[in-house]
Structures are given as structure tokens and as C-alpha cells.
């Protein structure tokens, strides 16, 4: 079943079926919750101080970064991670099947300052035993365009200090150390602010958190971004509590290197959460 509920200034689509429950904010096309029925464990993290004012991107869940990732390369006045996560989206279709519920959404416009392409953006969310998110970028024009995108997923964990990330092996670019390259640590544990772009395309990643495993399957990506703000940054962000960093970890399936889309072509970025 699906129903629309209102929270502050935002409409939330609540999905409940035999396999799982989920919640998607129509502001930002922003998944906020995914809870499989078999274990009842919430996979996603949303800040207790998140704003639902329909203006500021919600802190947590799965922000849709599009049509750029991070700061805009040409204009620092433009919003970080593009502009569709701060727009209202519309539901194009809702389908119930014997594997779950599929919701198709799109932003009210894909045009915005800082991007010239004639694009169509579609988010397809399948809520079943697993959560499957597909972000499709189509080129409706007759000239190619380049873009970035990311599924900037915030995972709920019991304790960042007893958590390990499996599946990355190449060097990464460290945003906390002037983008210098470092070897991926084995085991990959967390003890300080972490903001890393791993330019590699693992199909499967696992977060092991006090023996609880969350699996993340990716495709259509060229990078995996790993972020934990740690204590000082957590305290400095008005939509995070001082101790927020202890129970969240961002593992983002991303296209951070410029991706070209030819006329009439479609790029699909996919993340599956188990
Ligand atoms: O996850 C990587 C990152 O770009 C970090 O540098 C940090 O800024 C994070 O995204 C959150 O960005 P936001 O604009 O949502 O506060």
C-alpha cells in the first residue's frame, strides 16, 4: 500500500508491503527510510535535527546529487551536489507486483543554473526484500552533455568506532588532505573525519557493524564516496547533533568523473541496499 503523509512542509510517500516499509519525500525525491520486514532493521539514517522545511536538503536518507557532485566546478555560488535534491518531485507511477512496490518519480524541472543540457531525470525506487534505486539521466537534446550524479546514501550503524567497510582496494583521493592520494586501509575502519573519493567500481560493498552486515550493490558508477564528518563537523552543522557521527556512515554510489550522455542516450546509476 502507499499513502501520502505530511511532515512540516513536506509530503512523504509511505510504502508498506509484504517485504518492507519505506518512506520517500516528494521534496528532493529523497528516500528517508527502508525497513525490511524479515529483520525489521532500519537501513538508513536521518538526522534527529534534519529540517523538513521544503527548502534545505534533508540531512540523511538518500540525497539525489545531480547534475553535479560536490561544489560546482565553475561557480562556487551554486548549491553543493546540484539542485534537484532541493526541488519538489512528482510521482509518475506506482506499481505493486509480487516482488514489491515500484515508484517512479521525476523532478518538476531538470533545468537550472550551472547546467546546459536538455535532460530528463527519472528515479525508479523498488521496495522489496531489497531496496533498489535507479537514477536515469536521458539526453532529450541533439547535442551531448556531461554531468555528475550520486546516490548519497546515509547508512544507520550502531557505532562508527566498531564498523568496517569491505570491498574497496585502490587508492583514494582524500578531501581532508588536499585531495592527496592514499592507500585504502585494510581493514577499513573509522577514527577521524573521513571524506574520500575512491575512483573504482566495486559491484559489492559491505558495512560490518557489530557483526551486522549491510550489503550495497552498485552499477553505472565510476566512484564510491565515503564520508563521516566526525565530531567537530557534526557539532558545526545545524542539522546534525554533536554525536550524530557515531551512528551514521555515508557510502555513496557516484559518478564523480565527467560522464557524457549522447543525444537520445540514457545513463543509469543504480544502488541496491540489502
Ligand atoms: O559526501 C561527500 C560530501 O561532499 C562531503 O564533502 C560533505 O560535504 C557531504 O558530502 C555533505 O554535503 P551536504 O551538501 O549534503 O552537506
Describe the overall structure.
GO terms for molecular function: carbohydrate binding; glucose-6-phosphate 1-epimerase activity. It catalyses: alpha-D-glucose 6-phosphate = beta-D-glucose 6-phosphate. Belongs to the glucose-6-phosphate 1-epimerase family. With 274 residues, this protein is mostly beta strands. The model has no long low-confidence stretch (mean pLDDT 97). The strands form three sheets. Strands 5, 10, 11, 13, 14, 15, 18 and 19 form an eight-stranded antiparallel sheet that branches. It has a single domain, classed as Beta-galactosidase, Chain A, domain 5 (Distorted Sandwich), CATH 2.70.98.10. 3% of the residues lie in helices and 47% in strands. Bound molecules: 6-O-phosphono-beta-D-tagatofuranose. The site of 6-O-phosphono-beta-D-tagatofuranose has 11 residues, from β18 and β19.
C-alpha-based Rg, rounded: 18 Å
> How many discrete domains?
1
Broad shape: globular
User: The CATH topology, please?
Assistant: Beta-galactosidase, Chain A, domain 5
- Quaternary status: single chain
Keywords: Isomerase
Family: Belongs to the glucose-6-phosphate 1-epimerase family.
Pfam family, one: Aldose_epim
EC number: 5.1.3.15
Amino acid at each position: 500500500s502507499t499513502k501520502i503523509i505530511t511532515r512540516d512542509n513536506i509530503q512523504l510517500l509511505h510504502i508498506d508491503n509484504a517485504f518492507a516499509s519505506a518512506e520517500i519525500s516528494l521534496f528532493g525525491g529523497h528516500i528517508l527510510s527502508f525497513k525490511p520486514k524479515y529483520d525489521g532493521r532500519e537501513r538508513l539514517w536521518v538526522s534527529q535535527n534534519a529540517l523538513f522545511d521544503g527548502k534545505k536538503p534533508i540531512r540523511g536518507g538518500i540525497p539525489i546529487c545531480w547534475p553535479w557532485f560536490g561544489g560546482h566546478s565553475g561557480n562556487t555560488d551554486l548549491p553543493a551536489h546540484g539542485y534537484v535534491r532541493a526541488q519538489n518531485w512528482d510521482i509518475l507511477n506506482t506499481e505493486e507486483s509480487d516482488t514489491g512496490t515500484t515508484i517512479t518519480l521525476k523532478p518538476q524541472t531538470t533545468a537550472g543554473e550551472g547546467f546546459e543540457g536538455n535532460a530528463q531525470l527519472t528515479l525508479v525506487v523498488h521496495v522489496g526484500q531489497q531496496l533498489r534505486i535507479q537514477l536515469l539521466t536521458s539526453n532529450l537534446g541533439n547535442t551531448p552533455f556531461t554531468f555528475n550524479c550520486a546516490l548519497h546514501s546515509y547508512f544507520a550503524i550502531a557505532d562508527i568506532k566498531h564498523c568496517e567497510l569491505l570491498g574497496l582496494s585502490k587508492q583514494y583521493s582524500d578531501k581532508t588532505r588536499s585531495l592527496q592520494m592514499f592507500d585504502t586501509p585494510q581493514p577499513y575502519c573509522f577514527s577521524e573525519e573521513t571524506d574520500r573519493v575512491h575512483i573504482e567500481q566495486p559491484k559489492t560493498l559491505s558495512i560490518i557493524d557489530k557483526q551486522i552486515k549491510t550489503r550495497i550493490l552498485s552499477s553505472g558508477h565510476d566512484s564510491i564516496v565515503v564520508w563521516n564528518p566526525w565530531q567537530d563537523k557534526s557539532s558545526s552543522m545545524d542539522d546534525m547533533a554533536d554525536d550524530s557521527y557515531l551512528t551514521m556512515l555515508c557510502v555513496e554510489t557516484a559518478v564523480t568523473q565527467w560522464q557524457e550522455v549522447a543525444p537520445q542516450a540514457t545513463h543509469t546509476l543504480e544502488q541496491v541496499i540489502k
